[in-house]
User: What shape does this take?
Amino acid sequence: MTMEVERSRIADRMPSTPMDLERARTDPAELAERKLSRGAILFAAGAVGVLIVYLLWQATRLGGNSHTALIGDSFFIPADLLAIWATAMAARHCQADRRRCRSWAFVSVAMVGFLVGNAIQLYQEGWRHLPDRPDWSDSVFYVFFLIGLVGFSATRRNMVRRWLFTLDTTTIALGAGAVLWYFVAGPQATSHGHSLHEVFYAIVYPLGDLILLVAAVRTLQHGVPSSSLRAIRTLSVGIFVYVVADTMEGYLGLHGGYHGGDRVDIVGMAATTLLALAGALQPTVGEGEPDGRPSRRTGSGAISYVAATAVFGLVFFTERDDPFFPNLSILVVAVVIVVLVGLGQVLSRRALLGEQAINEDLFGELRHQAFHDGLTGLANRALFGERLEHALERRRTFSMSHAVLMIDLDEFKLVNDTLGHEAGDEVLRSVATRLRNAVRVGDTVARVGGDEFAILLEDVNGERAAIELVEHLLHVVGKPITVSGRTLVQRASVGIAITDDEPHTAEELLRYADTAMYRAKRQISDHYCVFETSMQTALVDRAELEVDLRCAVERGELRVFYQPILDLSSEGITGFEALVRWMHPSRGLLPPTTFIPLAEQGGLIHEIDTWVLYEACAEASRWQHQSPQFAEVSVHVNLSPLQLRESDLVDTITGALSAARLESRFLTLELVESSVVEDLELAQARLTELKALGLRIAVDDFGTGYSSLSHLRTLPIDELKIDRSFIAEMGTSAQASALVHSLIQLGAALGMDTVAEGIEDAVQLLHLRGEGCLQGQGYLFARPLYGEELHSYILEHTVPPSGRYPSASHLVVDGKA
Assistant: This one.
């Protein structure tokens, strides 16, 4: 397996978030440890308790020698039952991992075979006083245990594991084979007087023990999931102890010295206890748990060392003229084992060093990913905050001045909406490169949001130096960018926060720069702003106002004022525009420009717009029912751009009309021009639904947005309301007069009522009458009215005889809000 594949396998188990960076340096087994259940603890305590009682019995031999086999073999029955139950519970704990669940189930079946074998031995030796003989239950134990062991390893071995597995397997096979041959298989296979059946079992049983040992080594070297590591290690040790016990029993049985209940059974009881403990140590497995380490020798190395020690023990306990295994052969096996163990140690160390090097590289990559933006490669907010903290620490010592810049790309959403997100990403990468190349060495550039960047200027020489650099950055960012075959000019707004004599935290400086940036976005020119303390005061004031606004509707603090719309010839009323105000308990009457932006940002605009709609419809219905001369007077209600996107808008308007018993033709919805063209497809669909109700649609502040003739021609619009700024300049600007004339003619050509806003003096009124404008509103006629003022105004005016809308084009002029 190549190094890149190895890196990939290790990387798959690396932490995926910065919060896991330090925890990832701990042992995976420690990370995977889980508390054992109460049942598992009881199983473990029961198995250990049976072993302790058995040891006490072996020490005292209660019951006499005549019942030794019966009593001794009886102890194995509860021990086997505990092992069966523990391994079955382990299978249940691994239901999230089917492979491990099946493996534990196979081990549990193997322990059932072990129980049957011990029960047969109890019957033969304890009750009938006959020697124990091989039976079918042993084959069940070996086969199912082998399948279970092999199934625990869940990953493919890499090259290092293959070599370590080969070395450890060869070492254990040589060592265990030598011991088993010398003590058990060799004497029975080579001595005279034994039947073929006896010779077969003399070879098969040691071979089965050897295969189980090799399978345990394979499982450990293959790698097991971290949560099962303790359990599988304990299981492997149990197999090793079982092989030792089987070898000792075979050796004693060969020489006629083994009987049930002998002290050598202590080793067999220890093996059964370890198998039960292995099942109890298996915690509950979660979904998607990672596999074990790729090249670590998880216990197989220790077994190979034991095998080597056993072979060297044979060197000292055998005779030179031994007919079964000459001393020279044992010595050769011992030397080979030493060489194999040495090679395994060298290979394991090299693999460990290689893995550590890969881990260090991966941790370096992970740290870079954790503290850098993936799209632009710039520092992210976490790294920026860390460097800002360090800069402020140095400032406390060396009295240096630093500046924090917060940069936001203007109208960046329009790039994503028109050219797609890939083009937007390309713009972000281009801007990031320009900013990185424009700052000084040592300054930090970071991407802290979707289209927001932050720059830390260390050791800046006062406010003037910071502003000069900001002007340079704005010039660099504003250069044309070619994206998807289109040339774009991207503008930006910059907020500047400079450290002063007062101590500041990193969070405060970022907040100050952010506040200044939003102030810069509201400026017409000089798209940068230096933070001042008054801005923070305004920010606190804004936050308090937003809190009060959330309760304004419930407390009945909102008011709806109505400004009349008049026929410019007769000056009779044709309708009223509903304008919301806020009667604040301590600040007095607040205009909509003070709180509507807060409502839109805070998610309150839907509630406010709906309330105004219901109030205006109800008021219009009262006019019509109280005064017959106002039966044809309509009401105009402003609709927020956000509410236009609401899926329940049609239901809301239908509900308001129904509740007020107002015909839909007396309701006109006014939308600002930008909300109509921002999402043309949505606007067309929503306005078509509204027109189907029978109401009228007006475009407010017309001439200030980006409407085109194609938009106006395709959308179901009834009125165009000319913005007040054009009306105000008619007397001083020939261009403004020409524009008003063009807009009135445009409305007439498109079959729409053209409405002008903001008539404040008689000169403007005469000019509009001369242009053919028949309707208007403004302070010349009336301010927005409320309560008794509105009632008195209605009584003093009448509706023109020609009806609500004359056939000529209409012009509505809005008063100052």
